[in-house]
Design brief:
By secondary structure, the chain is α/β, with parallel strands linked by helices. Strands 3-2-1-4-5-6 form a six-stranded parallel sheet, sandwiched between helices. The relative contact order is 0.19.
Protein backbone atom coordinates (compact mmCIF):
# COMPACT_ATOMS: atom_id res chain seq x y z
CA UNK A 1 0.00 0.00 0.00
CA UNK A 2 2.42 2.61 -1.21
CA UNK A 3 1.85 5.99 0.39
CA UNK A 4 -0.39 4.71 3.17
CA UNK A 5 0.48 6.77 6.25
CA UNK A 6 1.08 4.68 9.35
CA UNK A 7 1.66 5.82 12.92
CA UNK A 8 3.37 3.55 15.43
CA UNK A 9 2.41 5.01 18.80
CA UNK A 10 4.61 4.08 21.77
CA UNK A 11 3.72 4.60 25.38
CA UNK A 12 5.89 3.82 28.38
CA UNK A 13 8.84 1.58 27.43
CA UNK A 14 8.83 -0.35 30.70
CA UNK A 15 8.15 -3.73 29.06
CA UNK A 16 11.28 -4.80 27.14
CA UNK A 17 9.69 -6.02 23.91
CA UNK A 18 8.15 -2.70 22.88
CA UNK A 19 11.37 -1.22 21.48
CA UNK A 20 12.34 -4.28 19.46
CA UNK A 21 8.88 -4.90 18.04
CA UNK A 22 8.44 -1.24 17.04
CA UNK A 23 11.83 -1.27 15.29
CA UNK A 24 10.87 -4.49 13.53
CA UNK A 25 7.40 -3.32 12.47
CA UNK A 26 8.62 0.09 11.31
CA UNK A 27 11.20 -1.51 9.05
CA UNK A 28 8.80 -4.17 7.75
CA UNK A 29 6.09 -1.62 6.91
CA UNK A 30 8.55 0.79 5.27
CA UNK A 31 9.94 -2.02 3.13
CA UNK A 32 6.37 -2.83 2.09
CA UNK A 33 5.85 0.73 0.82
CA UNK A 34 4.10 2.28 3.81
CA UNK A 35 4.96 5.83 4.96
CA UNK A 36 5.83 5.16 8.62
CA UNK A 37 6.06 7.62 11.51
CA UNK A 38 6.97 6.49 15.02
CA UNK A 39 5.85 8.70 17.90
CA UNK A 40 6.66 7.99 21.50
CA UNK A 41 7.10 9.35 24.95
CA UNK A 42 10.48 10.88 25.76
CA UNK A 43 11.82 7.69 27.34
CA UNK A 44 10.53 5.46 24.53
CA UNK A 45 12.11 7.72 21.91
CA UNK A 46 15.45 7.75 23.74
CA UNK A 47 15.53 3.95 23.76
CA UNK A 48 14.77 3.89 20.04
CA UNK A 49 17.44 6.46 19.23
CA UNK A 50 20.05 4.42 21.08
CA UNK A 51 18.88 1.14 19.51
CA UNK A 52 18.71 2.64 16.00
CA UNK A 53 21.33 5.38 16.21
CA UNK A 54 21.69 5.69 12.44
CA UNK A 55 17.91 5.69 11.76
CA UNK A 56 18.12 2.51 9.74
CA UNK A 57 14.82 1.05 10.97
CA UNK A 58 12.94 4.22 11.94
CA UNK A 59 13.15 7.09 9.47
CA UNK A 60 10.63 9.43 11.15
CA UNK A 61 10.69 9.65 14.96
CA UNK A 62 8.53 12.24 16.69
CA UNK A 63 7.43 13.31 20.14
CA UNK A 64 4.07 11.71 20.91
CA UNK A 65 2.45 14.80 22.42
CA UNK A 66 3.50 16.97 19.46
CA UNK A 67 2.14 14.38 17.03
CA UNK A 68 -1.22 14.27 18.83
CA UNK A 69 -1.29 18.08 18.80
CA UNK A 70 -0.71 18.15 15.04
CA UNK A 71 -3.54 15.63 14.50
CA UNK A 72 -5.89 17.69 16.70
CA UNK A 73 -4.99 20.82 14.70
CA UNK A 74 -5.66 18.89 11.46
CA UNK A 75 -2.09 19.49 10.27
CA UNK A 76 -1.60 15.77 9.75
CA UNK A 77 -3.42 12.46 10.04
CA UNK A 78 -2.76 8.80 9.40
CA UNK A 79 -4.46 5.93 7.59
CA UNK A 80 -3.40 3.28 10.12
CA UNK A 81 -2.30 3.51 13.74
CA UNK A 82 -0.63 0.78 15.77
CA UNK A 83 -0.86 1.78 19.43
CA UNK A 84 1.50 -0.20 21.65
CA UNK A 85 0.33 -0.54 25.24
CA UNK A 86 0.92 -2.49 28.39
CA UNK A 87 -0.82 -0.21 30.90
CA UNK A 88 -3.63 2.33 31.29
CA UNK A 89 -1.45 5.23 30.16
CA UNK A 90 -0.75 3.52 26.83
CA UNK A 91 -4.44 2.82 26.44
CA UNK A 92 -5.21 6.49 27.10
CA UNK A 93 -2.90 7.54 24.26
CA UNK A 94 -4.61 5.05 21.96
CA UNK A 95 -8.09 6.22 22.99
CA UNK A 96 -7.06 9.80 22.33
CA UNK A 97 -5.77 8.91 18.88
CA UNK A 98 -8.96 6.98 18.18
CA UNK A 99 -11.03 10.06 19.04
CA UNK A 100 -9.05 12.60 17.00
CA UNK A 101 -7.95 10.62 13.94
CA UNK A 102 -9.55 8.87 11.01
CA UNK A 103 -6.89 6.13 11.22
CA UNK A 104 -7.87 2.50 11.45
CA UNK A 105 -6.74 1.59 14.95
CA UNK A 106 -4.77 -1.48 15.97
CA UNK A 107 -4.21 -1.86 19.69
CA UNK A 108 -1.09 -3.94 20.27
CA UNK A 109 -1.51 -5.04 23.87
CA UNK A 110 1.33 -6.89 25.58
CA UNK A 111 2.73 -7.69 29.00
CA UNK A 112 1.62 -9.79 31.93
CA UNK A 113 -1.78 -8.04 32.21
CA UNK A 114 -2.53 -7.93 28.48
CA UNK A 115 -5.82 -9.83 28.66
CA UNK A 116 -7.20 -7.68 31.48
CA UNK A 117 -6.13 -4.45 29.75
CA UNK A 118 -7.66 -5.58 26.46
CA UNK A 119 -11.01 -6.16 28.16
CA UNK A 120 -11.15 -2.52 29.30
CA UNK A 121 -10.77 -0.99 25.83
CA UNK A 122 -13.96 0.82 24.86
CA UNK A 123 -12.93 2.48 21.59
CA UNK A 124 -13.16 0.94 18.13
CA UNK A 125 -10.01 -0.98 17.26
CA UNK A 126 -8.64 -4.32 16.24
CA UNK A 127 -6.85 -5.92 19.19
CA UNK A 128 -3.62 -7.88 18.99
CA UNK A 129 -3.16 -9.33 22.47
CA UNK A 130 -0.17 -11.24 23.80
CA UNK A 131 1.10 -11.73 27.35
CA UNK A 132 4.68 -11.51 26.14
CA UNK A 133 7.22 -9.48 28.09
CA UNK A 134 10.67 -10.52 26.84
CA UNK A 135 10.24 -12.78 23.81
CA UNK A 136 8.67 -10.89 20.88
CA UNK A 137 8.16 -13.94 18.63
CA UNK A 138 4.42 -14.42 19.23
CA UNK A 139 3.68 -10.73 18.74
CA UNK A 140 5.97 -10.60 15.70
CA UNK A 141 4.03 -13.48 14.12
CA UNK A 142 0.71 -11.71 14.76
CA UNK A 143 2.01 -8.51 13.17
CA UNK A 144 3.54 -10.38 10.21
CA UNK A 145 0.16 -11.93 9.46
CA UNK A 146 -1.60 -8.57 9.70
CA UNK A 147 0.93 -6.77 7.49
CA UNK A 148 0.69 -9.54 4.91
CA UNK A 149 -3.11 -9.18 4.86
CA UNK A 150 -2.89 -5.36 4.57
CA UNK A 151 -0.28 -5.50 1.81
CA UNK A 152 -2.33 -7.69 -0.52
Amino acid sequence: MTGTKVLLLMGCPEVPIQTSIVLYLSHKLANSGFDVTVAGTGAANKLLRVSDSESYYVKKLENLDKTLERVIEKKTDFDLCFAFMHNDAGMTYAATMSAISRAKMYSVIFGRNADTLAETIEFDCEKLVSKVVHNPSQLKNMLDKLVKERST
